[in-house]
Design brief:
Largest sheet: 9 strands, antiparallel
Number of strands: 25
Radius of gyration: 25 Å
CATH topology of the largest domain: Vanillyl-alcohol Oxidase, Chain A, domain 3
Oligomer: single chain
Shape: globular
CATH class of the largest domain: Alpha Beta
Structural class: alpha+beta
Strand content: 15-25%
CATH architecture of the largest domain: 3-Layer(aba) Sandwich
Bound molecules: flavin-adenine dinucleotide
Helix content: 25-40%
Distance between the termini: 53 Å
Number of domains: 4
Length: 561
């Protein structure tokens, strides 16, 4: 008896030793323990920090990853990429979590840059070097009190890398100093196999071209980049302050107010890059609201002579104030809290001009009060804002980013909200067709429902971008539904598209139907408001997995089969 106990005991010891040896040899366990040993983090849904770390800016597209790896060193990012790509485990790269398509997350492993927080300002060369986990707020705070500004966004919580890779404009400064992508001097990039390369105008210049406007999530993992910063010297105000004009019209003849503004742009602002505008139009059946943020990168004394005659036209502004603001002040005043309280869907149309027919559409973009959906249109004035045209950003000729948005709280209103904004975009494009005014869509306002997104985001740069992707990421390891496929890969043969339906529409029979299917195609553009069966008519792709989010959404995951 004692003998058999001893034998059992020895067996347990041998088995547990095997388990330890196996665990140590498991490359994923080794990766996790290496990341942790160098000050990084590994987060699972059971970890107290997980929820905050995985929360996306926009709850309408919240997707919870299975595992978050947060390396604290560049070497550990490389190790993660070489380990995971050799195991063919798909990843997403997470930065500031502001992607409107939720493309920094998926139901799988996320490589999160949150702990890569290095930031260095070199005043002598007038540059800032930022690691992948830096958000614009870090940069603005570091520059605050100096006379310098960086080309980041108005919203301080946006990640610097995701912003810059998509072009990245600052509605108040870009007309003076260009897009973020115009200002990058070099990138340090980890490739899918973990090797690290530099991209600049002299080293790997094709990759450098592609990273400046080609979009986050393609080509490689940007570890770090250096950008020019700009000394404000036109305003003669202290501490890098700008004149910031806040002008509003409430319940007036808003069409005339907008037409006067467009005439002012043509006659004055198009030729004076010191003037910038970010305009918000909100209309409903009972009233209207027009608000303009305007910055002037010139002497305060000139404000009257530059803006006076335009602002004295009828209808006169309901309210008009001038402030002296630093970049930090502007982002504090205009920035949106992270995460947003509501669900959001924001789109974009890059426009050469705004015609009367387009104004008709904008002035009829009414909210749906019954379904609790608010609506607005932003007009970001970008005439001559793109200062370096030798980049992948494809819109040097536009004057406006027209960005309609909707906001709502009830998940049941998802189809109505998404449907009404997508229909608005279609109407706007149709209204612009005779004048050929709309030439594409802004990649940084990435829209999972956009038709012909390849041409809309990239125009004639698409083929060159595919060639560059083929060279740097031949197996298409960095991929997502609107990613750039290398030439020997097709964008839809092994990848399903993302979509969502309110979960109340899901009955058990639907679930059975899903699980019994072997193939599935989701018709991205037409499915909103259609019965769910219609979506499943044409079976082409492998079925996706699915889950319910905590907000009650049903997600088709863009899972690679
Ligand atoms: C409230 C708000 C305000 C905005 N304001 C502006 C604005 O003023 N001007 C403007 O141009 N845009 C603006 N945007 C759009 C914003 O620039 C894009 O959504 C941008 O992609 C966000 O980057 P992120 O790192 O915050 O987001 P993430 O969702 O983390 O990343 C966005 C994309 O970049 C990829 N990515 C992130 N980090 C890396 C990396 N290190 N290497 C490679 N790929 C990476 C991700 O995988 C994802 O595909 C705004 C968006 C929001 C929600």
């Amino acid at each position: 008896m004692i003998d058999s106990y001893i034998r059992l005991y020895i067996k347990i010891i041998i088995l547990s030793m095997c388990f330890v040896v196996n665990a140590q040899n498991d490359p994923l366990s080794t990766l996790e323990s290496t990341i942790i040993s160098h000050g990084g983090q590994v987060l699972r849904i059971t970890d107290p920090q997980y929820k905050t770390a995985a929360t996306l800016h926009n709850r309408a597209i919240q997707i919870w990853p299975d595992l978050m790896l947060r390396p604290a060193t560049f070497d550990d990012v490389s190790l993660a990429l070489s380990t995971l790509s050799s195991l063919q485990i798909p990843i997403r790269i997470m930065g500031g979590r502001h992607s409107y398509g939720g493309y920094c997350s998926h139901q799988g492993i996320v490589l999160d840059s949150a702990l890569l927080k290095g930031l260095k300002i070199d005043w002598a060369t007038e540059t800032v070097t930022m690691q992948a986990g830096i958000i614009w707020d870090d940069v603005y705070k570091a520059l605050n009190g100096s006379e310098y500004v960086a080309m980041g966004g108005l919203c301080p919580t946006v990640g610097v890398v995701g912003f810059t890779l998509g072009g990245g404009y600052n509605a108040m400064y870009s007309r003076s100093y260009g897009f973020a992508s115009d200002n990058v001097l070099n990138f340090t990039v980890a490739l899918y196999n973990g090797s690290v390369v530099t991209a600049s105008s002299t080293i790997n210049s094709d990759l450098y071209w592609a990273l400046r406007g080609g979009g986050g999530g393609n080509f490689g993992y940007v570890l770090e980049m250096t950008q020019k910063i700009h000394r404000i010297n036109g305003t003669k105000l202290p501490n890098g302050q700008f004149s910031f004009l806040n002008i509003t019209w409430v319940n007036v003849d808003i069409r005339t107010a907008l037409t006067n503004w467009l005439t002012f742009l043509k006659n004055v602002a198009d030729g004076d890059s010191r003037i910038s505008f970010n305009v918000i139009v909100a209309v409903n059946s009972e009233g209207n609201f027009l608000m303009m943020y305007c910055s002037f990168n010139g002497p305060h004394e000139e404000i009257d002579s530059v803006f006076g005659s335009w602002l004295s036209q009828n209808p006169k502004p309901t309210d008009f104030n001038v402030f002296n603001y630093t970049q930090n002040d502007i982002s504090r005043v205009l920035g949106i809290p992270f995460p947003v309280v509501n669900r959001e869907h924001v789109l974009s149309a890059m426009a050469i001009n705004i015609t009367d027919a387009m104004l008709d559409v904008i002035l009829n973009f009414y909210p749906n009060f019954t379904a609790g959906i608010g609506s607005w249109t932003e007009l970001i004035y970008l005439h001559n804002a793109n200062k370096d045209t030798n980049t992948a950003y494809a819109f040097p000729d536009i004057s406006f980013d027209i960005a309609p948005g909707v906001s709502w709280t009830n998940p049941d209103s998802d189809p109505d909200a998404i449907g009404m904004s997508e229909k608005f975009l279609e109407k706007l494009i149709a209204a612009a067709a005779p004048s050929k005014s709309i030439v594409g869509a802004y990649l940084n306002y990435i829209d999972p429902y956009l038709r012909d997104w390849e041409t809309m985001y990239y125009r004639n740069h698409w083929d060159r971008l595919r060639k560059i992707q083929t060279q740097w990421d031949p197996t298409w390891y960095f991929r997502f539904p609107q990613g750039i496929p290398p030439y020997d890969q097709s964008s839809n043969d092994s990848l399903t598209l993302i979509g969502r339906q309110p979960w109340k529409e899901l009955t058990d029979s639907y679930l059975n139907y899903f699980t019994s299917l072997s193939t599935l195609q989701i018709k991205m553009h037409n499915y909103v408001n259609q019965p769910l069966e219609d979506i499943l008519t044409n079976n082409l792709l492998l079925i996706t997995n699915f889950s319910l989010s905590e907000y009650g959404d049903f997600y088709f995951h863009d899972k690679i089969m």
